[in-house]
Design goal:
heterodimer, A: 456 residues, alpha/beta, FAD/NAD(P)-binding domain, 2 domains, six-stranded mixed sheet, elongated, B: 2 domains
């Protein structure tokens, strides 16, 4: 008999498990994936947002709790639970030390991420190394970890989880514990559910993270009148290389060249201002933009002037000496493509190009103007990448309170059910995204949930 | 076991791997390889050889890799770079026709070992000053009753000269092909940096973190660093011992065997014990390690070299203990046989990793402060 069962195997789940075990509980972790795929979306992450009053070994300058909260308000446009947001932010610094004290390592920000060196603590070796260290710590604490154990149903009666129904390699089994912590992620790997929530266009989405976030635990809870939070159609989607794998493409499929070129749809038409703002502030809207185009695809075109201005991507671009040839390679109508480029070039204004500032290179007089970094596409070879919407995570989840406790629709708190991680991110992230905040939320509420669950 | 690829296929796999790493960069603080990758957009074969020799094979980038198998990108940097590293030893070998010797290296070492032992025993049996090889000798010059001093020193000088030439030519080829000039080697700061990296084995220690590396599985450990450098400093002490003995012999006319409290014996004994401990430790790690991030086809080279090093030291220590009895000639021949084999295969053995790793660290020193 276990005191606490943690559902999930990512950062949030393991923080919860470690915290519960340190409180003296006998803990079982049920991870739906095989060992080699363990870690949920955490294996693809690289940092955690941390407020700090003074520089640390890995973080520069200072980042106040107030500033962190303001940044969050900006991206969510106020759609956040102030109490929970301030709790997560307020505990982010002690969380960083808590992880370090337990054998998780941080490093200075990696190249190409200078803008995050003040606000985000990078995991040494990335998220998978973090998760490896967390699993080791869990094993050292005597926590039992079962892989290939997918929880598909929670038996909920009178605000209490009586048992869990689990798909195991040896068939269905029932597990019981005094308390349950749901840290099983969102539903973004469940294509059917995505289609329900996002419409037909979801069929062309690529999933940037784990293939194991099927949302079964979430669905089981919502089907039994557990209180939901967040909208099903809210989530984090970016434009990724169209050749990325269907799942687990992770960081390397991103394309950072949009501000330096133009983006056309499958009819060779431009549809949005590519140079609206710096890429880190705009990349998260391009998933939506591309998903609303025909066949959910776009093509970013640059010429040789811009080729070395962005982080290299994992797939080689289509490369051609003429626009016509490039259109052929990208399979878009050539005549319209050449017209679009010529029209764009004709409206580019004189300016001084500077990729590090919001420069004065822009177009004027177009239906869709480009407001910065607009330079003529005129120097062969020309390069093109296909874009697809890549979904990172979903925000539909369960409502929690400051003790990470889950609630029923009627407002009654659950007696023995807690939640953390992506499944509760919607409490704080009503919309938009602030890099590294998901890991902060998962870790902080994981620690809280573990402590609470151990004393049920 | 996975398929063994040709050199060209390996290079293609490595190039693709470097492109993925360059787009990811999560491993940037693990070791010098990953920051070096970011200097490039495309990767020539020489660049890949450089990365392969800069890699200390700590496997942190495998266990922490979100694209490692079963991911379809199938990224296995330690294995891929290990394969390229051995290919590069073969390309740099002098004379170049001997480059092939790296591919059946376990067999090569075994054959050379057998021949060396046989030669030394034949010499010992034919040339020793008694009717039986089992004869006790004592006092100054006792070893030379078994193998004459002129033969012993003549052969060792010839072999050492050959080894030195092969090392120099190999290193020169590595350095020039990697795009550097010989004149760069006059820059003392490069040497300072590379020597410091070598003496501390910093890059097997987990970098600035100092928590060690992941040799056996995904847990951090300092064990490989400690066992490697126990072997390394043990070997250095035996070289010091031999050098002092040579000075005694040629400089002062003091002939072996030396007292138990003499410098050559003290250095040799401590060094020998360290090598025995280090090589056993390294072997245990190799036996226990996760086989996936390992180039299995080259393990023969590693085991044969470690074993030979162990046998040289073990027989040396045995000789010290038995030098006054009738088993001295037997153990002297065994020891000299292993020593001869060790130096004969040296330019075509795992030992060359030291040469090219040091070269890569010199090159890294040139670019790291850019």
């Amino acid at each position: 008999m276990y005191d606490v069962i943690v559902i999930g195997g990512g950062n949030a789940a393991l923080c919860a498990a470690i915290s519960a075990a340190e409180e003296g509980a006998r803990v079982l972790v049920l991870e739906s994936s095989p060992r080699l795929w363990r870690g949920g979306n955490s294996q693809h992450t690289r940092n955690m947002r941390v407020a700090h009053p003074a520089p640390t070994r890995c973080l520069t300058e200072s980042y106040s709790v107030e500033e962190f909260y303001e940044d969050l308000l900006k991206v969510t446009k106020g759609e956040t639970n102030e109490e929970l947001a301030k709790l997560a932010i307020g505990q982010s610094e002690t969380m960083y030390h808590w992880l370090e004290e337990r054998g998780m390592f941080f490093q200075k920000s990696i190249s190409g991420t200078l803008s995050l060196s003040r606000t985000n603590a990078f995991f040494y070796g990335g998220g998978k190394t973090l998760v490896n260290c967390e699993f080791q710590k869990a094993e050292d604490l005597g926590i039992t970890i079962l892989y290939d154990h997918e929880v598909e149903w929670l038996n909920i009666k009178n605000e209490r989880v009586e048992s869990l129904i689990v798909n195991t390699p040896k068939g269905k089994k029932e597990f019981k514990a005094k308390a349950i912590i749901a840290a099983s992620g969102g539903f973004e790997s469940n294509r059917e559910w995505l289609r329900e929530a996002w419409g037909e266009q979801a069929k062309n989405f690529l999933i940037r993270g784990t293939r194991f976030n099927e949302g079964k635990v979430l669905k089981s809870m919502l089907n039994q009148n557990v209180q939901a939070v967040g909208k099903p159609e809210q989530g984090h989607a970016v434009a990724v290389d169209g050749r990325a794998p269907l799942y687990d493409g992770g960081i390397v499929t991103r394309l950072d060249c949009v501000p330096f070129g133009i983006v056309v749809n499958k009819n060779s038409q431009r549809f949005y201002n590519e140079g609206e703002d710096f890429w880190p502030k705009r990349y998260a809207i391009w998933g939506r933009l591309v998903s609303s185009q025909p066949d959910q695809m776009g093509n970013v075109i640059i010429d040789s002037k811009s080729f070395n201005l962005f982080m290299p991507s994992v797939f080689a671009p289509c490369k051609a000496d003429t626009l016509e040839e490039l259109a052929g390679l990208l399979d878009i109508p050539a005549k319209e493509f050449i017209e679009t480029v010529n029209e764009f070039n004709a409206h580019v204004q004189e300016g001084t190009f500077n990729p590090d500032t919001l420069d004065n290179c822009c177009t004027q007089g177009l239906a869709v103007n480009k407001t910065h970094w607009a330079r003529k596409i005129d120097t062969p070879p020309f390069y093109g990448y296909t874009l697809r919407p890549g979904i990172t995570f979903t925000y539909l989840g369960v409502k929690i309170d400051k003790d990470a406790r889950v609630y029923m629709d009627n407002g009654e708190p659950m007696k023995n059910l807690f939640a953390t991680g992506e499944i509760v991110a919607g409490n704080i992230l009503g919309q938009g995204y602030l890099a590294g905040t998901g890991m902060t939320i998962g870790a902080v509420f994981g620690r809280i949930a573990g402590k609470g669950a151990a004393h049920v | 076991m996975s398929k063994i690829l040709s050199l060209q296929e390996n290079m293609q796999v490595a190039r693709r791997a470097m492109e993925i790493c360059n787009a990811c960069r999560y491993c940037e603080s693990l070791c010098p390889v990953f920051p070096e990758i970011t200097r490039f957009r495309t990767f020539s074969d020489h660049d890949l050889n450089y990365f392969a020799n800069l890699c200390h094979n700590c496997k942190g980038c495998f266990h922490g890799c979100q694209y490692a198998p079963p991911h379809e990108f199938d990224l296995n940097i330690p294995k891929t770079l290990s394969e390229i590293r051995v290919e590069s030893y073969s390309q740099y070998a002098f004379p170049s026709a001997f480059g092939k010797l790296f591919f059946k290296n376990g067999t090569l070492v075994s054959i050379i070992m057998a021949i060396s032992l046989a030669l030394v025993f034949i010499a010992g049996i034919l040339l020793n000053n008694a009717d039986s090889l089992f004869t006790a000798y004592s006092g100054v010059g006792s070893f030379y009753h078994v193998i004459p001093i002129k033969l012993m020193s003549g052969v060792s000088m010839l072999v050492c000269a050959y080894v030195a030439l092969a090392f120099f030519m190999g290193f020169k080829k590595f350095w020039l092909e990697s795009g550097e000039k010989m004149s760069d080697l006059t820059n003392g700061s490069l040497w300072k940096s590379a020597l410091s990296d070598m003496f501390t084995l910093r890059h097997l220690g987990g970098g600035d973190e100092g928590h060690g590396c992941t040799h056996v599985d995904d847990r951090y450990s300092q064990s490989r660093k400690w066992f490697h450098h126990t072997t390394f400093y043990g070997f250095a002490m035996t070289i010091i011992s031999t050098t002092i003995a040579a000075i005694y012999h040629y400089g002062f006319g003091w002939h072996a065997p030396y007292d138990m409290t003499s410098l050559p014996v003290i250095f040799g004994t401590i060094g020998g014990i360290m090598i025995v401990i280090g090589t056993i430790g390294l072997s245990v790690i190799k036996i226990k390690m996760d086989p996936v991030p390992v180039a299995q086809q080259f393990l023969g080279m590693e085991y044969s070299f470690i074993t030979l090093l162990f046998l040289v030291s073990f027989t040396g220590l045995a000789l010290l203990l038995l030098r006054d009895g009738i088993y001295m000639p037997l153990f002297l021949c065994l020891h000299l046989g292993f020593v001869l084999a060790f130096f004969l295969v040296l330019p075509y053995s795992k030992f060359v990793h030291a040469l090219y790793r040091f070269g890569a660290l010199l090159k890294y020193a040139k670019y790291k402060e850019r």
